[in-house]
């Protein structure tokens, strides 16, 4: 990227994407652009919202690779033997991990009752109570918070160890990512305040049982996000270690379900006929990977409602500059 293209890019960021805090563009393993905005710098972590989902997908893949989980077709209820299925509930008994990964599980709601969910004493059990119903299984139904959290319960029960310990050992530490501690909310007010505060450390939100959230709540830096994107571009290999299997990369980055013109893999948005894919979070947080161009982009942003589409920013402005 030359000086003129950088000037144009930063002008666009300032005028149309003013909540951006960090942007890194990496091509063929080398950074071609890196800058920070709104008082943030390279060391400042930020809440990446639903980008957390895609990272949790990787943890499910590692658990399968290591034999903690048989495969994505394993039934959800296999992991909750003490959960009591309500009388005449049949659909929940057929649902699999793959339904959660591809957003094809049905629920007993039209709009997520996320406030009631977060106010409940046990988020996993509440999510299981809302799973199923009489809707058709296999149709795409995006569950931003509730459905994906069932994966937290599945992973914790499969591992029989804290999720963060497993994630550090098998994913974060090999990539040089330091997740400092869990984030625990004691009141609703604490949680609301946390959303608007500048984060002082990298961390991961937990539910009342101490399970790390699968759908949101991870706090990391743009550099951490670039590493994760590069890992996927490298087919799961980092330096001399295979962190994710090539098979998992292939399966998780191809289309399994669709919503109109939008396509979905395993908690990843699939773009351009499977040539590129992205982890996307509220406010404009993105890990973007383009295989053909050997390109990885990370964008972090402060939360604003109805944030402008960062994939449009990448496709319309950044990629043509390279």
Strand content: 15-25%
Largest sheet: 8 strands, antiparallel
CA radius of gyration = 19 Å
Tell me, briefly, the overall form: globular
Could you spell the SSE succession in H and E letters?
HEEEHHHHHHEHEEHEEHEEEEEEH
The chain-level structural class is alpha+beta
Please report the distance between the alpha carbons of the first and last residues.
Answer: 6 Å
Find the count of extended strands (DSSP E, 2+ residues): 14
Share of helical residues = 25-40%
Neighbour order of strands in the largest sheet: 2-1-14-13-12-11-10-9
Note the total helix count. Answer: 11
| Low-confidence blocks of residues | none
- Mean pLDDT across every amino acid position: 95
Q: Any key phrases for this structure?
A:
single chain; 322 residues; alpha+beta; eight-stranded antiparallel beta sheet; 11 helices; globular
Strands, helices and their partners?
Layout: H1 3-16, E1 20-27, E2 30-36, E3 46-47, H2 51-65, H3 97-101, H4 114-119, H5 123-130, H6 146-159, H7 163-172, E4 181-183, H8 188-196, E5 203-205, E6 218-220, H9 222-233, E7 237-238, E8 241-242, H10 246-252, E9 257-259, E10 262-264, E11 269-271, E12 276-281, E13 285-290, E14 295-301, H11 310-321
Parallel strand pairs: 4-5
Antiparallel strand pairs: 1-2, 1-14, 3-6, 5-6, 7-8, 9-10, 10-11, 11-12, 12-13, 13-14
Could you characterize the architecture of this molecule?
- This protein is an alpha+beta fold and 322 residues long.
- Helix content is 35%, strand content 18%.
- It has eleven helices and 14 strands.
- The strands form three sheets. The protein has an eight-stranded antiparallel beta sheet, with helices on both faces. A four-stranded mixed beta sheet has the order 3-6-5-4. It has a two-stranded antiparallel ribbon with strand order 7-8.
- α2 runs parallel beside α6.
- It is globular.
- The model has no long low-confidence stretch (mean pLDDT 95).
């Amino acid at each position: 990227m030359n000086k003129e293209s950088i000037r144009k890019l930063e002008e666009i960021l300032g005028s149309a994407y003013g909540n951006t805090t960090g942007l890194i563009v990496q091509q063929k393993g080398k950074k071609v652009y890196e800058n920070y905005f709104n008082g943030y710098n390279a060391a400042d972590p930020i809440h990446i919202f639903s980008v957390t989902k895609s990272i949790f997908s990787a943890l499910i893949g590692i658990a399968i690779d290591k034999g903690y989980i048989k495969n994505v077709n394993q039934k959800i209820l296999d992991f909750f033997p003490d959960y009591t299925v309500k009388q005449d509930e049949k659909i929940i008994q057929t649902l699999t991990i793959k339904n959660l990964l591809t957003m094809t599980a049905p629920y007993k709601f039209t709009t997520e009752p996320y406030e009631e969910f977060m106010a409940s004493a046990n988020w996993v059990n509440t999510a299981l109570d809302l799973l199923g119903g009489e809707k058709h299984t296999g149709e795409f139904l995006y569950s931003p918070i509730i459905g994906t959290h069932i994966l937290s319960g599945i992973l914790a029960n499969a591992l029989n160890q804290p999720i963060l310990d497993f994630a550090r050992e098998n994913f974060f530490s090999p990539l040089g990512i330091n997740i400092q501690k869990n984030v625990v909310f004691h009141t609703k007010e604490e949680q609301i305040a946390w959303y608007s505060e500048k984060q002082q450390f990298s961390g991961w939100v937990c539910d009342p049982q101490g399970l790390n959230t699968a759908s949101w709540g991870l706090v990391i830096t743009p550099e951490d996000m670039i590493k994760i994107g590069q890992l996927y571009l490298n087919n799961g290999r980092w330096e001399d270690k295979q962190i994710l299997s090539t098979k998992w990369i292939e399966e998780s980055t191809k289309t399994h379900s669709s919503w109109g013109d939008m396509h979905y893999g395993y908690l990843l948005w699939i773009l351009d006929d499977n040539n590129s894919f992205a982890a996307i979070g509220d406010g404009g947080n993105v890990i973007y990977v383009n295989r053909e161009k050997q390109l990885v982009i990370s964008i972090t942003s402060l939360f604003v409602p109805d944030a402008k589409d960062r994939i449009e920013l990448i496709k319309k402005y950044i990629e043509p500059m390279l």
